[in-house]
Design a protein that fits this description.
The chain is of the alpha+beta class. The chain contains six helices and six strands. The chain has two domains: about 50 residues, no CATH class; about 170 residues, Alpha-Beta Complex (endopeptidase fold (from Nostoc punctiforme)), CATH 3.90.1720.10. The chain is about 40% helix and about 10% strand. The protein has a six-stranded antiparallel β-sheet with strand order 1-6-2-3-4-5. The longest helix is centred in the middle third of the chain and has 54 residues. It is elongated, with a radius of gyration of 56 Å.
Amino acid sequence: MSGAFTAVTPPPARDIGDTQSFSRPVDLATTNGPVSAVNPAANTATAATAGAMSTGTITAAPATLVTSVPAAAPATGTVMAADLHQTDAKQIADLSRAVNLDRVQAAQQAATQAAEAVQSSLINKVTSLTGGVKPLFDATNQVSSKALTTAITKMGVPYVWGAVGPNAFDCSGLVMWSYRKQGINLPRTAAQQSKVGTPVSRDQLRAGDLVFFYSPVSHVGIYLGNNKILNASESGQPVKVSSMANMPFHNARRIA
């Protein structure tokens, strides 16, 4: 081919060091490999490599991946409500225990006062039966004093041989019935009763002890004090107070 051609002046090439750089978006997913979600520094290296392969300066922000979420602030309101609920529950429980304790103490005090009233009444009654001598009770033995109290309520009831109450008694029947009311089961006859419980000497007798007479044993009474007993003595005589001086003493027993 011949002829003359007009020369075309090419545009000046931009110096790679020019301060007037140009920018274009770069698809980091396709430019030089995938974006690293684990190592952001690798993303920057990938962008730098893409820039080296271009005719201009590539400005691309490295991809940032949020890998953690800040912990939520504690639910202060919920915790406070739970604490208040626990405090209220404890106060209610403490109050309930206090009320129950007061009731128990009041019941115990009432029971003690009632027992003292019965004992006082019994002492007064026995004192009158023994000619004004105050009886001596075993402070540790409530069974015998209660049995004596029960027996006293049957004063005036007739004697019937073999009767065990509540409308007639013989001597051992009165004793057996009075102690049975306290939850104590004694043998049926005076001879059998003379072998139960704890032996007591005549000079150590206390109100409520059982006293046996004759040999072999054929009669029993409940000691009152001042050498006197409460007993169902014989036919034609009601339950009454008798003097021990009128019968030969055999032995005495204390029933706990």
